[in-house]
Amino acid sequence: MLTILFDGIAYGMLLFILACGLTVTLGLMNFINLAHGAFAMAGGYVTVVMMNRYGISFYWCLPAAFVVSALIGLVLERTLYQWLYQAPHLDQVLFSIGIVFMAIAATDYFMGGQQQLINLPPELSGRMDVFGVGVGRYRLFTIIVCAALALALQLILSKTRFGSRLRAAVDDRRVAMGLGINVPLVFALTFAFGSGLAGLGGAMGAEILGLDPNFPLKFMIYFLIVVSVGGTSTVSGPFLAALLLGIADVAGKYYVPAIGPFVIYALMIVMLIVRPNGLFSRGGR
Amino acid sequence: MLNRRMLMAAAGVALSCLAAIPAAAQETIKIGLILPMTGPFASTGRQVSAGVKTFMAMKGDTVAGKKIELVIRDDAGTADQTRRIAQELVVNDGAKVLAGFGLTPLAMAVAPVATQAKIPSVVMAAGTASITKASEYITRTSGTLPQYSLPVGTWAAANKIKKVVTLVSDYGPGIDAEKWFTKEFKAKGGEIVEAVRVPLANPDFAPFLQRVRDAKPDAVFVFLPSGAGSLFMKQFADRGLADAGIKLIATGDVTDDDILNSMGKPAIGTITGHFYATAHDSPENKAYVAAFKKANADMRPNFMSVGGYDGMALIYAALEKTKGDATGPAFMAAVKGLSWTSPRGPVSIDPETRDIIQNIYMREVKDVNGELQNVEFQTFKDLKDPEKADAK
Predict the structure, then answer these.
(1) Which residues form a coiled coil (chain A) (predicted)?
(2) Which of A141, A152, B77, B150 has the most other CB atoms within 10 Å of its CB?
(3) Shortest CA distance to A135 belongs to which of B240, B248, B211, B242?
């Protein structure tokens, strides 16, 4: 029972780290970026290449995955995305889904279509008993890292100068610019940061979720569920939503395997009926 | 719908008229190879086409005085594409034989085309038993899931395994595997504690594995498509199921030779049943592996590649027998009862079902000179597909 809860939390944390970048772009910048999974995949492949081709330690791969994905995000934001901030949402969807397909084809061409595997350092593999509860070491590691990131993210957005500039830029772009805030810079940094988080999520998820060129499409639904249930105005909303969905998914598959895969969707429908604007929305906008 | 059917029928008629022209008039025979070369099942396409090309590199491109021309087309793993491409190949390109078909639904989609145009179709990868029943112009050189799930049940019952949990992907082949393993294992006195079906697009195996662990069986029988299989393998080890005394037995898809080596230590000791292993010890296989690796340095030939290789062997042998006549009825008559020595061992085509008869090997994953290999330790000789044998 507790093991299931633990696995659910670990899975939920992973979902959160993958999806929270999307919360940032969608909620704060009001841009629908379906290509979010492609950045996650980039992070995953960075890890695979560094570990399997060059034998670099897993711990170095995580920050590298963040940095590389963030850089790719920054470049794409400056060259492509920024022209679409003012475009209608449909254009944004079409544009970003196009990026997804290009990313899939490119990955397939360069890396091959097979499932990529990484071998974790020994101290992270296997499981241990904590007060009689079987705990996977890697899952514990995932929970710790993701929880720390969630906390950091919340603090950055609510307490720092950058956070308030970003919120100002989102709420009213013109006034923010008039006050001397460099809005394009703020947006570019935010976008890069969101992409970096996705890359980190992809790197951490490679072990549990697997990694192949179809990653962005396979997990797009999960990202969108997390963001739509959690709402986009806060960080804590998607965080709780991801946890809830992770636990519900794992528990559903464990206790009622016959309908297990549907539990997550049923939950989403219920949540959207009860709280259509997200868990912690400040009311309709 | 009606229009398309009539078009198909017309195409069929036109083709059979074409075929009536003396065969000596045409010097080349086109073989249309339809494979998923992109998309989630691209690795199947890569392996099969590499196997096919290896065969042509080894045996040349002429048979019975005819030149064989290969046309490879990509269906990206979607059935409607497969069907459209099959029609184009037959009608526009004049392909005489179709081959490939990475997945069951793709092969099924081509069956009506094969029947109406009387085009021999060689299934090189898809593994659901019922495919060869869909058209009398379909034959197969891979294997069927019942064929290699059943021996795993025989082996398990004979090796002190009493209680088993089955865990399969929830789609056609998975259900085939579950059914035939269960049937055989129960008949031999074993007990199935629980049957778990995992959704095909499943990101995390944790809950299912925990269920297996809590059921405390002697072994867990697994069928998963090869990519998901490797992920499963790692989580199986991580969750300490092996330490809890639960053995992992599976069909060979899980320890796919193409990616086995990258699975690392957790895979060692896994017992699987399948028709081909890269490490199979025979002069034919040594020659095949050497030729395959020469052309594809970074790949290891797996069971799909050998399905492609043998598919070509079958086409060549049938054309040899018909003296280059590739028309449907003559070709299929020649196919029935063909036998040859494949890299996997002796194989033949069942004259009644047009399905392959072959040895199934029980293998254990071992570290051989620093590379993980499926090492064969027991052979079940000349097995037919049990589903069709049973139906009689």
Answers:
(1) none
(2) B150
(3) B240
Confidence class of residue A280 from pLDDT cuts 50, 70 and 90? low
How close B13 gets to chain A, by Cα (Å)? 39
CB contacts < 8 A (A, B): 101
* Span A163-218, pLDDT tens digits: 888 878 877 778 888 888 888 888 888 889 889 989 998 998 888 888 888 888 88
d(CA B303, CA B252): 9
Backbone angles phi, psi at B220, to 5 degrees: -120, 130
Strand partners, B339: B348
Kindly indicate whether the domain formed by B146-274+360-391 is annotated with CATH number 3.40.50.12780.
no
Per-residue pLDDT band for B272 (boundaries 50, 70, 90) equals very high
- Residue B78 makes CB contacts below 8 A (sequence gap 6+) with B39, B106
Whether residues A115 and B46 touch (CB distance < 8 A) is answered with no
Alpha carbons within 13 angstroms on the beta-carbon side of residue B64 total 17
Q: Which residues, other chains included, contact B363 with Cβ-Cβ below 8 Å and sequence gap of 6+? A: B252, B255, B271, B272, B273, B274, B277, B374, B375, B376, B377
Query: Which DSSP helix (H) or strand (E) runs through A69?
Result: helix A58-79
Q: Which amino acid is at A169?
A: A
Among chain B, residues having any CB pair with chain A shorter than 8 Å are: 38-43, 46, 196-197, 199, 201-204, 206-208, 210-211, 226-228, 230-231, 234-235, 237-240, 258-259, 262-264
H/E stretch holding B198 reads: strand B191-198
Instruction: Provide CATH 3.40.50.2300 ranges for chain B.
Output: 2-143+282-354, 146-274+360-391
- Side chain identity at residue A118, one-letter code: I
User: Between the CA of residue B174 and those of B170, B225, B259, what are the distances in Å?
Assistant: 6, 9, 20
- Please determine, for residue A12, whether its predicted confidence score (pLDDT) is greater than 50: yes
Q: What is the pTM assigned to this prediction?
A: 0.80
- Nearest CB to B210: which of A4, A212, A218? A4
Looking at the domain that runs over B2-143+282-354, which CATH code has it been given? 3.40.50.2300
Parallel, antiparallel, or unpaired for β B138-140 and B121-123? parallel
To the nearest whole Å, the CA of A77 is away from the closest chain B CA by 27
Of A3, A112, A126, the CB nearest to B210: A3
- B264 and A117 within 8 Å at the Cβ level: the answer is yes
- CA distances to A27, A186, A191 from A75, rounded to whole Å, are 21, 14, 10
Angle at the Cα of B327 from the Cα atoms of B323 and B330, rounded to 5 degrees: 65
ipTM (interface predicted TM): 0.75
List the single residue in B with minimal CA-CA distance to A249: B207
Contact (Cβ atoms closer than 8 angstroms) between residue B230 and residue A115: yes
